[in-house]
UniProtKB/TrEMBL annotation:
Gene3D superfamilies per record: Aldolase class I
Pfam family, one: Glyco_hydro_114
Renumbered residue ranges of the record's region Disordered: 22-48
Keywords from the UniProt entry: Signal
Signal peptide: 1-21
Listed name of the protein: Endo alpha-1,4 polygalactosaminidase
Length: 273
């Protein structure tokens, strides 16, 4: 389940390149470590423990000394991605693949028959992921955008509609089919792809995805469910909003998760383990 996504406010807060200091960075200020090697398929493959920054709102802070940035795909420009790349960063393109957002430039391209119940966030509605023939070209265009801007990977959000009240009779089988379609669309474009939450299906999907992105597994006592990714030598990028680092970092380090504390707005502030 998507427990929090701050992209609704990005329609008003465009990300623009800047170097602003993070007041509680927690990193050592050194040059980011060498980039992980590519997977056998030639894609970028982040390894367990890789440090990261996740920022979806506010003025983009490019000063955080980490090798990976996860940022909004629509609001980040090609030039910003290039600047991060030239500084030695890998970039992950955030896009919603399981929910419609009325503030995106392609919102009118989605047929009304695809739109279900609201997912709890202003301007967002669940998508009928059973309609893969309608959704595939729409998501392909979004992933083309990520590729053309120079991103290394995609973070597809809202990947667990079948566990929520969407307005559609979605099953776990529908979700598996759709999530594998999303992974294929990314891989066909040379992009790595992360599994967002969807913990129950990790055993079935760990082979299809290159890393995982998780919110609040410590708060909900679910972090052990992510170990299949670690055992497969794939990073788990993890955040907590309502737990301080002294409450979850010890366990995160044991599990080799890439963990940090963030605020709900997913702005530049971060406190890593």
């Amino acid at each position: 389940m998507k427990r929090f996504t701050a992209v609704a406010v990005t329609a008003l807060l465009l990300l623009t390149a800047a170097c602003t200091a993070d007041p509680d960075d927690g990193d050592d200020g050194q040059t980011p470590p060498p980039q992980p090697s590519a997977s056998p398929g030639g894609r970028w493959q982040p390894r367990p423990g890789t440090a990261w920054q996740w920022q979806l709102t506010g003025q983009l802070d490019t000063s955080v000394k980490v090798p990976v940035y996860d940022i909004d795909g629509f609001n980040t420009t090609k030039e910003q991605v290039a600047a991060l790349r030239s500084a030695g960063r890998r970039t992950i393109c955030y896009v919603s693949t399981g929910a419609w957002e009325d503030f995106r430039p392609d919102a009118d391209a989605f047929p009304k028959s695809l739109l279900g119940e609201g997912n709890g966030w202003k301007g967002e509605r669940w998508l009928d992921i059973r309609q893969t023939s309608a959704l595939e070209p729409l998501m392909a265009k979004r992933f083309d955008m990520c590729r053309d801007k120079g991103f290394d990977a995609v973070e597809p959000d809202n990947m667990d509609g079948y566990k929520n009240k969407t307005g559609f009779p979605l099953t776990s089988a529908h979700q598996l089919t759709y999530n594998r379609l999303i992974a294929r669309l990314a891989h066909d474009r040379g992009l790595a792809v992360g599994l967002k939450n969807d913990l129950d299906q990790i055993p079935d999907l760990v082979g299809d995805f290159d890393f995982a992105v998780n919110e609040q597994c410590a708060q909900y006592e679910e972090c052990d469910s992510l170990t299949p990714f670690i055992k497969a030598d794939k990073a788990v990028f993890h955040v907590e909003y309502e737990r301080s680092t002294n409450e979850f970092c010890a366990r995160s380090k044991e599990l080799r998760l890439s963990s940090m504390e963030k605020k709900y707005d997913l702005g530049p502030w971060r406190k890593p383990c």
